[in-house]
Amino acid sequence: MSEGELETFATTVEEVLAIVHDEQLLYDYTSEQSWMNPQYNEFITDLPFEHIENCVKAEIENLQFFLAQDESIEVKMEHIGSTAVPRMPGTKNPDILMTLKNFPPNKETIKALMISGYQLKEKPNKGPKFRYTSCLWFVKYVACGPLALVGQFIKIHIAEMGSETEKKLLGVKYLLLNNETAFEKYKDGKMKASKWLKINYKKYKFLKAQCLPKVTEELGIAQNL
Q: How far apart are CA 128 and CA 146, in angstroms?
C-alpha cells in the first residue's frame, strides 16, 4: 500500500480495550476502508486451498502461543469463509473465527492479537441492526511470507462461544462442505457477483451477501445460517 492508503487504527491495547467494551465507542470507531479497494481483492476462480489452509493453521498456532500466556482465556479458532471450502472461488484473503467464553475480549486477548500484528477494524454494517456484542473484526496485513500478495490480509471474526454468530459462520462453512447442491448454487451466485468486484466493490459485497439466503430458500434450509 502506498503512504496515502494506510489504515487509521486504534494503536494501543488500552484504547482498543476501551472501544470493544463500550457499544457507543465501537459504533463511533472509524478506520479507513482502503482494505476494500478492489486491487487488494482479486477474485480467483481456483483458490490454492491447501496452501492457504496450511498458512491459516500456522497463523492459528501463532495466536494460540500468545493466548496461552493467560490461562484464563478459553478460546477456539477455526478457518472459515470461501478459502476454507475447497473449489470455492473468491478472494485470496482468509478468515478465522475466534470464539471466546468471555466476550468481549479481555486485555490479554487484545494484547495477544496486537502482538501478532492484528488491529481492530471498523465494521461497515452500521445500520439499525448494529450490535457490538455480536462480532468484532481484527485485520492483519501480510507484507511477507507464504501468504503475502499485494494488499493481502487476514481477518479474524471474534464472537462469544455458543453465540448466533458462531453458529451462522460455522453453519455456512459446513453447509457448503457437505451439500454439493448448495455449494454449486452458492458458487454460481458468487461468480455472477464477481463481475462487479473491480467496478463497484460495495455492490459486489451486497450481491454476494444475497447468494446464501437465495440458496437456503431454494433448498428449504433453515434461515438461521
A: 40
Note whether 85 and 173 are within 8 A (CB). Answer: yes
The candidate with the shortest Cα–Cα distance to 137, out of 26, 54, 11, is 26
Alpha helix stretches (DSSP H) within the chain: 13-20, 23-28, 49-67, 107-115, 164-178, 180-193, 201-219
Of residues 130, 168, 100, 139, the one with CA closest to residue 7: 139
Residue 29 or 132, more confident: 29
Calculate mean pLDDT across residues 9-21.
92
pTM reported for the whole predicted model: 0.88
Relative orientation angle of helices 180-193 and 201-219, to the nearest 10 degrees: 150
Alpha-carbon gap, residue 27 to 19, rounded angstroms: 9
DSSP codes joined into one string, 73-121: --EEEEEESGGGSTT--EES--EEEEEESSSS--HHHHHHHHHTT-EEE
Helix, strand, or coil (residue 2): coil
For residue 75, what are the contacts with CB-CB under 8 A and spacing of at least 6? 64, 67, 98, 99, 100, 101, 109
d(CA 138, CA 95): 10
Helix (H, G, I), strand (E, B) or coil at 133: coil
Q: What is the mean pLDDT of the chain?
A: 84
Q: Quickly count: other Cβ atoms within 10 Å of residue 218's Cβ.
A: 11
Residue 34: the pLDDT is 52
